[in-house]
Amino acid sequence: MSGSPLYRVALMTLLLGGMTPACRTVTPPARQSPAGPRGDARHLEARLDELRLGPDGPRQRQGLEMLALELRDALRFEPENPHLHYLLGRTAFYLERDAEAGRAFDEALRLAPDVAEYHFMRGFYLRFQGDLAGSEAELTRAAELDPGKAKHWRQLGATLEARKELPRALAAYEAALAIAPEDAESLRGRGQVLMAQGRVDEGVALLEKAAALGTSDDLSLRYNLGQHYQLAGKHEQALEHFRAVIAAAPDDWRARAKLIQEHQALGQLAERDAQLTALRELKQRGAVDSPFFVREQFEESGHKVMVFEHFELEGERAVRYRFEVLTPDGESVQRTLSLGSYEFTNKAITENRTPGVRIFHLDGYFPDGAHQTFGFFDGEPSYDAIRELVVEVLRGKRKPASGTSPLPSRE
C-alpha cells in the first residue's frame, strides 16, 4: 500500500504522531532560532507538521519542496542551528531524498547530541535504509534520553522485531504499553511477536484489540487477521476482516479474491458470484496486476487444494482453472488438475462438436511428467461442475479416460 509518492509522510503521520505539533520535538532552549520569517524554526516546524497531516498529492509535495528551499535558505544564516538541520532531514526524508536526509540528521546530532527526538528520527530513517543495527542504537539512545515516550519504545520494538530479536522486541513493546496501554501500534507489535513465538491465541487477541482501536496500517492488519482465521478454518471471522479491508479499499483485488474464497467456504454462492463480478470489473479497469487469482482453498480426502482461475484464455495451452493438490505440509505440489482449452486439441477434434464452440478438457499432471485426461466438454463448463469432478477424482471415484507415463530413464 505504498503507491503514493509521499507514502513516508502518511506512514510517519500515523506511526509517530498522536501528539500536538508543539510536542513532537524536543528543541534545546539555548538553540532556538531567532524570530523572523527565515529563522523561526518553530514556525517552519508548524508548517512541516501541517503538510504532514494534510492530504497527500501534488500540493503536498509542492509544499514540501518549497519548505525544503526555505530550510536550506535559513541554514545559510544559521548553519549551527541543529533544529533546522533536523527539520531539513525530516523534509528530505518525506521527499525520499535519503542522502540529504541522512546528512541533515547527522549534522543535527553533531550539534545537539543529547536531543532524544533527533536520535529517534535518525533511528527511524536508518530502518528505512536497512541499517537495523544503526537503527537499534539510535532508538535505544532516544529511549535512554527520554524514557517516558511510548513511541521511542514502540519503534525500538519494531527494529528489534525486524532483527528477529523477539524477546527484546517483546520487552520494548511492553515498555511502550506500560506508558500508553491503548497504543494500537504497540499492541500490534506485541501481538505479532507473541504469534512468532508460538503464543498464537495471546497474539491474536492483541491484534484484534489493535484492529478495534485502529492502527497506522489497519488494512494490512485486517488482511493478516483474515488470513489467520482462514487458515484456522474460522471463515466467519475471516470474512469479517476481509470485508473491513474492502470497505476501506474497494480496489484491493487480493482482498476481493479472499472474499470469494470465504463465501465459497461458507456455501454463500450468490455472495461469491457478486464478488467474482466485482473482481472481473476491476480486471477490466486495469486494477488487477495479475493474469490469475486464487479462486478457492479447500481440503478434500486428506489433500490441501489451492485453485487458481485465469481471467483470460490465452496462449496455445490456455487454462481456465488450475487445481494444485499440495503435500500435507503445503510446501510442494503433488499433482495438478486443470481445465484447459488447448489450441491443438481444438484443431484435432472435429467430429460431434458445435461449430464455433471451444473444446475444454480436464487433465491431471504429475511432477514426473505423467499425464491423465478425465473428460472433454463441448463449451466451457461452470466452476462448480468442474470442482465436483475434481472432488470425485480426489476421492478415487473418477478414473482417467486416458493417460501417458514418462519414458523410463536410460541411466
TrEMBL record:
Keywords from the named record: Repeat, TPR repeat
InterPro entries per the UniProt record, alphabetical: TPR-like_helical_dom_sf, TPR_rpt, Ycf3
Ranges: TPR repeats: 82-115, 150-183, 219-252
SMART domains: TPR (SM00028)
Highest rank taxon of the organism: Bacteria
SUPFAM superfamilies: TPR-like
Entry-linked Gene3D superfamilies: Tetratricopeptide repeat domain
PANTHER family assigned to the protein according to its UniProt record, in alphabetical order: TETRATRICOPEPTIDE REPEAT PROTEIN 6, UDP-N-ACETYLGLUCOSAMINE--PEPTIDE N-ACETYLGLUCOSAMINYLTRANSFERASE SPINDLY-RELATED
Protein name: Tetratricopeptide repeat protein
UniProt organism field: Pyxidicoccus fallax
